[in-house]
Amino acid sequence: MRPKRRAVTAVPRTPDRNATPARRPARRGTTGGVAPTVAPASGPSRTATSARLALESVDLTVDLGRGLVLPNPILVASGTFGYGIEYGDVVDVDRLGGICCKGTTLKPRIGNPTPRVTETPAGMLNSIGLQNPGVDAVIEKYAGEWTTWKAPVLVNVAGESVHDYVEVARRLDGVPGVAGIELNISCPNVGAGGLQFAIDAGAAAEVTAAVRRATDLPLLVKLSPNVADIRPIARAIADAGADALTAINTLSGIAVAPGRRKPLLGNIYGGLSGPAVKPVALRIVYEASQVVKIPVVAIGGVTELADVLDFLAVGAVAVQVGTAIFADPTLPVRLVDQLAAECAERGLTSYRELIGTALPAKAQRPSAKGVEYRP
Fold first, then answer.
1. Catalytic annotation on 187?
2. At what angle do helices 331-346 and 305-313 cross, to 10 degrees?
């Protein structure tokens, strides 16, 4: 199947101070894994050569447990990269550390009423509503293509009940091309009056344990920032059998319509993402990393190498790039090269030496106490 090109809508983003000059992205199958540049007749490009040497000299592999080893710590976040094939003519997907595909449910969903998306200062609000064709159609349409890629594909799974999550996981179990599951538990639990699984430690543990029993696939669980203290929830999920955590999902927000007589989004509420959420994401990763032994993958406002380094410093083993992809789909691949070059410049043979450098020796008090006003 030949991937189709998709139009990309620009959103505000922080300029990438570490970015190299833009160049045409490589197609899949490029030898050496480095995007080609125009080389002088006398020999290869110095930039391409140095990038290749950096990639070869630095170990960027990431072990997320249960046999899931990523080639590098730069992934693309769910909801921003479709099912991967949409970007096939723009991005060399084999260069990515991993792909978290669009949220997938048991049955097809048409999503929320429009408008669904709006820009905000330093980010965007989205209220797509998990529009997707359902798990059976996802397997039929995309799994075959995923088997041809080097980048592992994690299916983001959503549901309204424990049964929904379990049934989707069972159907994905053993499907060639599916490397793992990322549980989106920031969904309303219909059995608990609409309470989100992600904001209650007991509910989060229940759905995690149920999915763990249903599949042998590597299991990542996505944390919500819409809580006062993430630590007991993170511990409960880890104890229930998750192989890794991803943090964070979007923050709940609204926008006001022109005329200021009603909210803008058709669903009223939307999820805030982009550079504006990075400080919150850093805080969640920082706190979760202190209380769990399983890996934490960071998400939230990554637009440049400095953001990647910040998340590694507070304990993340990898990062997902999300909203910035809408403005620059080539950013994730470029970050892979920049991280390798940064490590090589520091004389490091593995990026793992950058992980946890900003963590305290002992677990600190939660931010719910730490941010109290003190004159």
1. yes
2. 60
